[in-house]
Amino acid sequence: MNSAPAAVIERAGVPNLDCDPFSDKFLENPYPYHDQIREAGPLVWLSRYGIWATARHDEASEVLKDYKRFCSSAGVGIANFKTEKPFCPPSLLIEADPPEHTRARNVMGHALSQKNISALQEKFEADAVAIIDAALEKGDIDGMDDIAIAYPIKVFPDVVGLGSEGRENLLIYGNQIFNIFGPPNRLFKGALEKIPNASAWVTEHCKRDVLAQGSIGQIIYEGAEAGDVSPDEAGLLVRSLLSAGVDTTVSGIGNMLNLFAQNPDQWALLRSDPSLINFAFEEAIRVEGPVQTFFRTSAMATELSGVPVGDNEKLVLFLGGANRDPRRWDDPDRFDIARKPSGHLAWGNGVHRCVGMRITQMEAEAILKAMLARIELIEPTGPAKIRLNNTLRVLDSLPLRLTGV
Ligand code: HEM
Q1: How many structural domains compose the chain?
Q2: Which of 123, 342, 371, 405 has the most C-beta neighbours closer than 10 Å?
Q3: Residue 4 lies in a domain
């Protein structure tokens, strides 16, 4: 269980900051705080929680790439599994280090290989057309309910092999799993109340006999038959897909729609040059990353950019802050689909880099392709409302008007 925020713990000789990255104010608009953390130093000490933090690109990237110095097996949220009991059985992927991680990653990597997922392209595009046609017919929409949720909740569980009933449990489950990476604040406590039912539903729907033939879920179980993982572990891997694959994509598509609504020049640019389609989603998740934070734990006494780090200390990596580091990008707060945002950390980096990245990119590209052919204007009709989450940056509602070509 996560520990309560400790009384203020100072660390001598390094920049100490008292900000709370899990307060409502920070989560509503993290960017001014990221600037403050980034400019205070390459690595700063957050005295309220007694943890390290970085919002710089190079430092966050170095930590992500070096699993020997900065491990994931002690948890990728604020809880330290070496001293605290994890709330759920740890993931075989995201909460494991090589060599155990490598075994599970190979099974997942095979299930999500280009060969297996390229066959999905046609289905993704047909589903995107249906969703965009329905939204356009309404004209005034909620970009979240009508597109950003409607699309992934249709295509992704189809891919994993789930039936059509009860899919709302995936949204509840995904949202709460990402709250549990944070400290025991209001959002964490709300998650503890909501998660048991959704979690029971998800566990039931990870079983082999309920997954459709030929689905990605079944391919993971075939990996178990080949002896790479046990059948129980295969169930946990399917659970990892369902925890990580829905809310993240909902957030990414919603944030992208909002950015286009706020920046009509960028929608006009994409319409005039559809070859930018591949960069548009990448740039959107650079500027408004779905996953704002992940943690690592030092596996030895070490240093980062000259700052000494003790053994078994937690570090929070502000991925959203690193992606706006002016040391790495010109005019970093600007949404500019003509820039090549390669090297951004929205997918992570190193051995844990998002294994579902290509599926999300295919979903986003299918939505954009359907929109480009049908929509001339995307206009906000009211303020977007954020849904606070300890890890994700995700909208709750996004009032938009779509005008057809
Ligand atoms: C916009 C959508 C997404 C974003 C921004 C995102 C982001 C991330 C990030 C930052 C990591 C690295 C975690 C770490 O280093 O500790 C990660 C890992 C992971 N993602 Fe995604 N993800 C997205 C979509 C997906 C989808 C659709 C799936 C499933 C098909 C998925 C499955 C996973 C899994 C299983 C891992 C753990 C990989 C490992 O530890 O080897 N993600 N994701």
Answers
A1: 1
A2: 371
A3: no
Q: Which of 72, 202, 248, 282 most suits a substitution to test ligand 1, by most atoms within 8 Å of the C-beta? A: 248
The one-letter amino acid code at 203 reads T
pTM of the complete model: 0.96
Strand ranges inside 253-398, DSSP E? 293-298, 302-304, 307-309, 314-318, 375-380, 385-387, 394-397
Ligand 1 pocket at CB < 6 A: 64, 72, 76, 93-94, 105, 240-241, 244-245, 248-249, 252, 285, 290-291, 294, 346-348, 352, 354-356, 359-360
CB atoms within 10 A of CB 204: 11
- Ligand 1, atom 22: nearest CA belongs to which residue? 354
pLDDT digit string, tens, across residues 278-318: 999 999 999 999 999 999 999 999 999 999 999 999 999 99
DSSP state for residue 246 in the 8-state scheme: S
From the list 178, 180, 240, 173, the residue with the least C-alpha distance to 201 is 173
User: CA 59, CA 32: separation in Å to the nearest integer?
Assistant: 19
CB of 83 closer than 8 Å to CB of 297: no
CATH code assigned at 344: 1.10.630.10
Task: Express each pLDDT in 71-97 by its tens digit.
Answer: 999 999 999 999 999 988 899 999 999
Give the residue whose CA is nearest to atom 12 of ligand 1. Answer: 348
- Spacing of C-alpha 177 from chain mean position: 11
